[in-house]
Amino acid sequence: MVLNIGVIGTGAIGREHIGRLTNTLAGSKIVAVTDVNQEAAQDAIATYQLDAVVYPDDISLIAADNVDAVVITSWGPAHEGSVLAAIAAGKYVFCEKPLATTAAGARRIVDAEIAAGKKLVQVGFMRRYDEGYLGLKQAIDNNEIGAPLMLHCAHRNPTVDERYSTDMAISDTLIHEIDALHWLIDDDYKSVRIAFPRNTKNAREGLRDPQIATLETKNGVIITVEIFVNCQYGYDIQCEVVGEEGIVKLPEFSNIVTRKSGKLSQEILSDWKYRFTRAYDVELQDFVDSIKTKGAPQGPTSWDGYIAAVTADACIAAQTSGAVETIALDEKPAFYN
Amino acid sequence: MVLNIGVIGTGAIGREHIGRLTNTLAGSKIVAVTDVNQEAAQDAIATYQLDAVVYPDDISLIAADNVDAVVITSWGPAHEGSVLAAIAAGKYVFCEKPLATTAAGARRIVDAEIAAGKKLVQVGFMRRYDEGYLGLKQAIDNNEIGAPLMLHCAHRNPTVDERYSTDMAISDTLIHEIDALHWLIDDDYKSVRIAFPRNTKNAREGLRDPQIATLETKNGVIITVEIFVNCQYGYDIQCEVVGEEGIVKLPEFSNIVTRKSGKLSQEILSDWKYRFTRAYDVELQDFVDSIKTKGAPQGPTSWDGYIAAVTADACIAAQTSGAVETIALDEKPAFYN
Amino acid sequence: MVLNIGVIGTGAIGREHIGRLTNTLAGSKIVAVTDVNQEAAQDAIATYQLDAVVYPDDISLIAADNVDAVVITSWGPAHEGSVLAAIAAGKYVFCEKPLATTAAGARRIVDAEIAAGKKLVQVGFMRRYDEGYLGLKQAIDNNEIGAPLMLHCAHRNPTVDERYSTDMAISDTLIHEIDALHWLIDDDYKSVRIAFPRNTKNAREGLRDPQIATLETKNGVIITVEIFVNCQYGYDIQCEVVGEEGIVKLPEFSNIVTRKSGKLSQEILSDWKYRFTRAYDVELQDFVDSIKTKGAPQGPTSWDGYIAAVTADACIAAQTSGAVETIALDEKPAFYN
Amino acid sequence: MVLNIGVIGTGAIGREHIGRLTNTLAGSKIVAVTDVNQEAAQDAIATYQLDAVVYPDDISLIAADNVDAVVITSWGPAHEGSVLAAIAAGKYVFCEKPLATTAAGARRIVDAEIAAGKKLVQVGFMRRYDEGYLGLKQAIDNNEIGAPLMLHCAHRNPTVDERYSTDMAISDTLIHEIDALHWLIDDDYKSVRIAFPRNTKNAREGLRDPQIATLETKNGVIITVEIFVNCQYGYDIQCEVVGEEGIVKLPEFSNIVTRKSGKLSQEILSDWKYRFTRAYDVELQDFVDSIKTKGAPQGPTSWDGYIAAVTADACIAAQTSGAVETIALDEKPAFYN
């Protein structure tokens, strides 16, 4: 009852998932790896002492008989091809974001999956597995706060490196809220505006930071997300849902409480990796378990990947236009209900 | 060294101020009262056991030799006339909001005060005297969080009565943020938009609730204020200032911490009166003390009242237009620097 | 309707009360002052611009016709004599702690007051006027947590000066808990033990710090109070009441919330004066108001002062004996019910 | 590189560990089970779909060639025999508390392990793997609060079943603090007293609840632990360490923050199982990993099991005597340094 997994892409995130599946989670075995850099693939096997074979490319790895599922952690532009190949081969897929770099590409995956007639694909949006978000969702679903009316969110990083550009505030940062928030309130986005407040002096030349995204949903919920990637003080994710009867909010990241030098304080994380460590674990364990017990992954689908791609495109257009941009989603295929 | 005060308007708020000046604060004495309802004025004297004279109208009260300062707590449309009369008579004025019901009216008061050559007027915006706001201001002024970039605020009431209309979300509710926030960050408003999220089912027919006001300042600070006057759960004022180096936020209203029935909880106020009780006290004490020790009130000025009037007008226009409305302030007279 | 007050003792705390009564509170006037140092008394009049007379001693001040009430803020050993003289003269008394330096002295005051047949005396235990303690008391009295079973308390100062001795941890520090806690749970103390944990290196030579007092009440409630007067980090008062059905606890002192440099923090006070500023105000205002409206002060009585004296004696004995010391109170006179 | 495990005892906790090792953790395989009720053992295999053999007793299971390590989750009185047998066979042991039901039994295990010359045994005290306790320990070890002087702790359950007796407040409840606290501050216990406050009406007839244990360590640290197993409101574990320079405290259990019906609240757990779910996972994963990578478990040792046994005996004696009972530990064998 062990799920045999092939890993496509053995860079940083690929290695993290290899380590997680091998040393932390139950029920899977990595039997195949590949990378455009074949030495990197070999090195991953050595480092994690895997009993696995290096394949020359994604196609041959996907074709291997003993590979039940693939984990795609290559660079973004390669995702679409690997996912389509895996679907064609009837193999399960865990694909890190983005599912595809264009909305059209994501739509092609959706269509391929529908044509294959079986849900095979899970996209790596881990926030849905975070206990805080799950708590919010449970409260909303249990009608504890009535219908959601507004969401106030923030996504803050202490700093970003020099390659980080203004549009990456959408494609790398806001993308997590884009997926998590429509899932949270079970609604679809309708439009978006992006506003640029006074720029922080701590942003490198040319980078607009902070930004405020205002999304509106089909049900009229207004969502504001502050994106601030040079906030200096820490990695901080905030989400508050205001409903007709009450409000629920993510807890602060749990940490010991200190009284010292005139301050009552708790530490704030500086590194984003630790914020969702557990969500990453639960996400991949759920991928493995769901395939075994339900015959299909239960996490974010190709359709969610498509929603993220369309929404991100509109957000990036809104950065330039300064106007309200429509988020025009195709009608949701019954396959994904 | 007692400041002799005349009170114009002995309705609810007038009586509160009479009680406060008589039974809670030091250094003043109410020597004169008037009200369009003369019986109400008599009754106030009896209730608070004042050693005071009832005058037939504001003009005669202002003219009384022993009146050093007037507290104006009549209904809004009467404020401008009383303030102008007091300025003409060289008497100090504490005027409850609004200073005038129109921007033009507020401007007339500003001009009269400048012509009189002496600061006489304080407008009753009490939040500037709240310890929480003062703490935020001190942190900002001490450069503890760098330049402010964004403010996230909320003004929530559990319910409102049936006379409350959509525009009162500006003139009665947001008006407090309008005054407090530009003072807090020492900046001027440039424009405003109002958005209407999905309406709460708890609002009476015809009332748009909640609303989100997005103000932009001359320095590019973007301020979002959620106005939600049927939030059900309590009276709740939130204000968070995001700066280049850190964030400061109002504390929750202080209350004992309870562990009971599976909950760790603190009470939230249901009645707005208790939220700023102390700020009202400090505000009026400061009015009295400043006149005695500095010869002029030190609180919100006529100019602040003018800013509030112009800004509120733009906000109400924005409710209807759905567009970004410019907030066009006259140049600030040197008199108010 | 102004209460005329004479102040006996114009040292630091005397001046604070003079300032408070003159510049902050309503309804009283300081008409007389005295001090063993007559120049100090003259200076107080000048500083606070009082319309008051300097008397040569407490006896003559108490005898003055226009003195309705006295505030006793002389040094501790002088309190008993002044209080007894005021009772003899039928004047109201607000006496700073201690009411008397011995239990016998406190008992003499109790007896004198009973003999006089009228409640005249309030002891300056201000915690009963603190909003936090009042919130705890209300919750207990409303039976929100069932019968109290245990109290966990802490009284921490950042540092103390070199005159502070081990027994002052009782007479100057714990004394506030001694008064507040029996009032809070409406119970009487039965016994006490004092334990000395490992000493902090930050205590001066010879001072035992911290200490833990364990009090038991007639109803069997066990109260532990940590006394730690060199805790370095701030002035911090904690009180948690564990009841049969739930727990209530004092809130942290309210302060703005800051996110900065990897910390989510609130400031802790360093100076005890600010912790109970408002309680001091409310306490004295209540003294003034109660005399006017109810003909007697409603705060801590002479009997409470007696309880404090007897309990403090037992605590100091327990410091030396290391044993459980009985707190032997006389039967409560009906006069104080 | 898979650790083969035999499980002795397939009751509730045994099944939990079987599920955990099989479905949640990496790197182990359950190859053998036994139980005095052989059907229960068979049923565990069926339920968890194990590829494992049922053995007639602990001795035969321990003897099985393919068993690398045993998990002992039988009833307490059987632990000592199984542990000694495993040590004799040179097999690794994870033994649920208690290591032995008597101090003498625990000492026999210690002696056997020393004689075997290899650390083989880990006792199931999971709190050392809780992130909160680890955070406290790190702060203390980093000297962030100076030398510890006092600990204030509470162990509260909402209710207990009717079999729960006064001494189980030690052997089943306080036992967790007994292990965790000496580890936390790296100190040894010297003495203990138990006090009984007023009993809660919610305790069944005959049960003394709450209790307060006061432990003193060799370094003079005083530890108070409130044990309150009918607190009604929830399962709540508190631990505060007061040091010379500051204080650290466990965080509240993390949960979403709700504003509703006049309350700002977070849920408190009602079921103890959820409080340390993650600690149980980390504990067992560490057992498995440490054997593989370091050749010996790194968690609580037999010596820690012995300390717990001796200390619990003294605590139970103190319940009856009402006196300070000495905790007389043998000298720590160098083997455990």
From TrEMBL, chains A, B, C, D:
Query: What is this enzyme's EC?
Result: 1.1.1.18, 1.1.1.369
Looking at the record, the residues that make up the Gfo/Idh/MocA-like oxidoreductase C-terminal domain are: 137-323
Tell me which domain of life the UniProt entry assigns to the organism this sequence originates from. Answer: Bacteria
GO MF assignments: inositol 2-dehydrogenase (NAD+) activity; nucleotide binding
The Gfo/Idh/MocA-like oxidoreductase N-terminal domain, residue ranges: 3-125
Catalytic activity of the protein: 1D-chiro-inositol + NAD(+) = scyllo-inosine + NADH + H(+); myo-inositol + NAD(+) = scyllo-inosose + NADH + H(+)
- Classification via Pfam families: GFO_IDH_MocA (PF01408), GFO_IDH_MocA_C (PF02894)
Alphabetically sorted, this entry's keywords are:
NAD, Oxidoreductase
Biological function: Involved in the oxidation of myo-inositol (MI) and D-chiro-inositol (DCI) to 2-keto-myo-inositol (2KMI or 2-inosose) and 1-keto-D-chiro-inositol (1KDCI), respectively.
The family classification in the record reads:
Belongs to the Gfo/Idh/MocA family.
The protein's assembly and partners: Homotetramer.
Q: What is this protein called?
A: Inositol 2-dehydrogenase/D-chiro-inositol 3-dehydrogenase
Q: What would be the name of the gene that encodes this protein?
A: iolG
